[in-house]
Structure formats: C-alpha cells, structure tokens
Amino acid sequence: MSSDLKALSPPPSFGGPENNASRSRALSSNEFAAVAVVAALVAVLGLLGFVNSFAAVAEAARPSFGFLAWTVPLGVDLGIAIFAALDIVLARLDMRMRWLRLIPWTLTAATVYMNVAGEASAFGKVAHAVLPCLWVVAVEVAAHVVRVRAGIEAGTRMDRIRSSRWFLSPFRTAALWRRMVLWEIRSYSDALTRERARLLTLTELQDAYGTVAWRWHAPRRVRALYRLGELTSGEDAEDRRDADDRPSAPLSDAEDRPAIEAPPSASPSAPPSRTDERTNRRTASARKRGRSARSKRAVPDVDDLMPLGWRIAADLEARGVALSRDNVAAALREADQAVSNARASALLARLKTEAPTEPIRPTTDDAPAAHDPIEGHR
C-alpha cells in the first residue's frame, strides 16, 4: 500500500507556490475609457443628489440651527462621500472593514428622512429619496469591484462554487466547500482536482484495508495524511509520471517525493516495542486480506507479447516518447496486435520491471523492415 500512495503538492495554506495565473489582467484602453465614463456619471449623480437635497434639508433645519442650517446638509452629504471613498480605498488595500459600509448607509437614511420630512405628497417623498439611494448603490458596486480585484491580485480571494453544483449535489458540494474553507484552497479547479485525488485515495485505502476497517487498520500516518489531503492514489501518480516523462515537462518537487513508508526504528539493533509489534501484525493481516482479494483477479498472460513489447519500448525511447500504457497500446494496434487495457497494463508493468533477454536495437528509417511494430506493414 505504501508504494501506491505518494504525497501531493500542498495547498496554498501549506506554503505552496502562488498561482500567478489567477492574477487579474490590466485594463485595456477601451475598458479604462469605459470605467472613466462610468465614474464621471456616478460623480454627476452624486452631485445632483447633493444639490437637490441641500436646499430642502437646509430649510428643514433652519428652525433648529438658524444661521448654521446650511452646514447640516453639507456635513451629511460630505460624510456620505468621505466614508464611501474610505470604504473603496480600504477595499483596494485589502483592509476593508465590513461595518464601515453601515456609516454611509446610515447617513443616506438620515438625509432621505430629512428630505421627505417636509414633503406632503408621495411624489415629493419618492423624488427626494431616489437620488441618495442611487448614490449609495453606485458606491457599493464600485467598492465590490475594487474589493474583488484587490483580492485577486493579493491571492486572498476564494472562488465561489457555482449554483448548479449546489443544486445537483448539495451534500458533496457542502463537504467540498468546507474543505476549501478549512484548508484555504482558494481555486475552485484546484479544489476539484484535490477532491478527485481524495476519492481515488479513499478507494485504494478501502481496497487495501477494508471498506470501513481502513479507519482503524491503516497506519496512523497514512490516515493523518489522507485527512490533510496530502495523499494521492497510485493511478493518479502514474498519470502524472507519464505526463512528466515528456521532454518539455520538467519534474516538480511534488513528484520527487518518496513513497510513504513506515518510519525507521530508533536503532537497527534495538528490539521492536510491543506497540510496533501490534501495529506490524495488524498491518500485515490487513495487507494479507488485500492481497487475497486482489489475487482473485487473474493477471493477464503477456509472454507472447514480450519480444514485441521490448522492441516497442526501444523504439519509443529512441523517439523520445514516454513509455505509457496508451503509447504501448497504440503501437501494438499499429502492429496488428489489438489488446485490452488490462493486457496493455500488464505488458507495461513487465516492460518496466524486466530486462530484455537479448539486446534490442530500435528501428531506424535507413534499415528496411518487413514488419515494423510502430509503423505497421509498409
């Protein structure tokens, strides 16, 4: 089992490399012009609201403030503009305080009340309330846009899970969202990739130790790494190795990690402790059960394909092509040897573990060949 489980690359919360692909792109000239026009229109909207409410609020405040009645609408409207701008600036710096948005909302509600207090008709009340409300909505939209772009650039914004997934699979989606929040997996696609690896790893643990018994029979280190999302199945690791065998894809640190093995004892000559003996007996019995279950499936016989397989392996190596199951199966089909996926996998396993009985020379274009396993009959 330890040979099938390998370490995954850690998520961003574990000190993984940043994903520069999620950086927000710069605005084009046309987009910048559109943003400038919208900002100018919002400023005009705010100015219109200020002018319309100034006279009404000043007149309503004259009995209480006298000569200083004009300072009431000026102070309230400036407070709305100042705190709205402060909210946008803090959002741009990724330091936004959620309660700060309540201040312009409260001031807007106050100026709306002072505007409509002296109006007797419904038209006058609605007309005096619309412009301040539109100003607050425009400022809130601007703060949202700035906050989203700041989160993308800082790498702290977490992707949202689409509503259709919540509808189709609510419980699994809730578990996926929980893992994204707990382990700070901010990319939705990365979370799906890690979820796929987790399910494959869970399947291998259940096959090796039992559907439910793996929670007790699997080594504690393996169980801990599984819960941390640090394990991947042997099939997934094989796919990554096949992809990384290509010349243009350099190996990363995650693929260079060794397989998870039992930790060495303190001293080679020291006798094992009782805890180690119990763990070894439990692990050995679980592995024996896993091997007995797997032995029921017969391994395909590929002795007749070994000579052709060694020649195909030599040809693939000479051409710089990765030795994978798909490439071997394609070469066999071109050589009029149609095989199933199981036989192709068995042949690939033997090619990787056994050496040819005699030297195999790859096929070249200069040497004529009556039957080429890669190119077929010419």
Topology:
Blueprint: E1 6-7, H1 29-65, H2 71-92, H3 102-116, H4 122-154, H5 163-168, H6 170-182, H7 188-209, H8 214-217, H9 220-227, E2 231-232, H10 234-244, H11 274-295, H12 306-318, H13 325-334, H14 341-353
Antiparallel strand pairs: 1-2
Task: Describe the model.
- Residues 284-297 have a biased composition (Basic residues).
- Residues 238-247, 368-378 have a biased composition (Basic and acidic residues).
- Residues 1-22, 236-298, 353-378 are annotated as: Disordered.
- Pfam families: DUF2637 (PF10935).
- This is DUF2637 domain-containing protein.
- With 378 residues, the protein is an all-alpha fold.
- It folds into three domains: 1-14 and 159-255 and 276-297, no CATH class; 23-154, no CATH class; 299-378, no CATH class.
- 61% of the residues lie in helices and 1% in strands.
- It is built from 14 helices and two strands.
- The chain has a two-stranded antiparallel ribbon.
- The radius of gyration is 34 Å and the shape is elongated.
- The model is unreliable at 1-22, 247-270 and 364-378 (pLDDT under 50).
